[in-house]
């Protein structure tokens, strides 16, 4: 049985990963965070010291093995779940994910990963490109101040330093790059349900989406 496919897209800081992960836990489904995959490619590219601006440099993807296991992300056998959140990765991931070659490779992996079982997949192009036939498509959004506040709190909770004005600037830069790139830009699928989470708690959003999956079964 192919299973239920739930696609969750949205801009940076809209809560996609947190919400997708909680839904997956509650329902016993598999969560695939595609942003983490683009981040893993970016981390590997930085470590290999390749020219990040040259699409041909990314041919290392022919032999690298980026995969998920139990909600952790790996490059080959190395767990990079924490390493992919560093600043250098965050600052370069929109550039890396703009290359058609990189997207083609990752979309292939994502389509394969979604084949078996019940899946919650989150990203920017899940409803439009990766899972165009998903059973339910959600587009999460929230105003930029709220998204920045969430990122800011997350950083402080991890014991890192954070400055609100810089977080807002970074989010706006990434939104701009992700929604204006040529290849699979961030946009709402015509059959997606738009959910503005600015004034909702995480729990409210999770419950709302689970309610919607029930209706669509
Ligand atoms: O979700 P997260 O913010 O970790 O994603 C990091 C970056 O990866 C995004 O800013 C975007 O450039 C890229 N991305 C993408 N397509 C996806 C998921 C993420 O281009 N499906």
TrEMBL record:
Gene Ontology CC entries for this record: cytosol
Reaction equations catalysed: dCMP + ATP = dCDP + ADP; CMP + ATP = CDP + ADP
InterPro entries referenced in this protein's UniProt entry, alphabetically: Cytidylate_kin, Cytidylate_kinase_dom, P-loop_NTPase
Known EC number: 2.7.4.25
Keyword Transferase applies: yes
Keyword check for Cytoplasm: yes
Enzyme class: transferase
Pfam families to which the protein is assigned, alphabetical: Cytidylate_kin (PF02224)
Annotated GO MF terms: ATP binding; dCMP kinase activity
BP GO terms, sorted: nucleobase-containing small molecule interconversion; pyrimidine nucleotide metabolic process
Localization in the cell: Cytoplasm
HAMAP family per the UniProt record, alphabetical: Cytidyl_kinase_type1 (MF_00238)
Family from the record: Belongs to the cytidylate kinase family. Type 1 subfamily.
Name of this chain's protein: Cytidylate kinase
Species this protein is from: Peloplasma aerotolerans
């Amino acid at each position: 049985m192919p299973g239920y496919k739930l696609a969750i897209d949205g801009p940076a800081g809209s809560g996609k990963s947190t919400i997708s992960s909680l839904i997956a836990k509650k329902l016993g489904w598999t969560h695939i965070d595609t942003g983490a995959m683009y981040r893993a490619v970016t981390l590997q590219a930085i470590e290999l010291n390749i020219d990040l601006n040259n699409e041909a440099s990314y041919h290392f993807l022919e032999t690298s093995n980026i995969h998920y296991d139990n909600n952790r992300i790996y490059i080959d056998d190395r767990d990079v779940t924490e390493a992919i959140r560093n600043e250098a990765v965050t600052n370069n991931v929109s550039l890396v994910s703009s290359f058609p070659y990189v997207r083609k490779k990752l979309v292939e992996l994502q389509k394969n990963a979604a084949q078996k079982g019940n899946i919650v997949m989150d990203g920017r192009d899940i409803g439009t490109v990766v899972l165009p036939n998903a059973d339910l498509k959600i587009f999460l959004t929230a105003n930029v101040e709220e998204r920045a506040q969430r990122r800011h709190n997350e950083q402080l909770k991890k014991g890192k330093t954070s400055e609100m004005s810089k977080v807002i600037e970074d989010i706006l830069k990434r939104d701009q790059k992700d929604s204006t790139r040529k290849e699979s830009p961030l946009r709402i699928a015509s059959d997606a349900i738009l959910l503005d989470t600015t004034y909702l708690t995480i729990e409210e959003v999770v419950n709302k989406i689970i309610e919607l999956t029930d209706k669509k079964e």
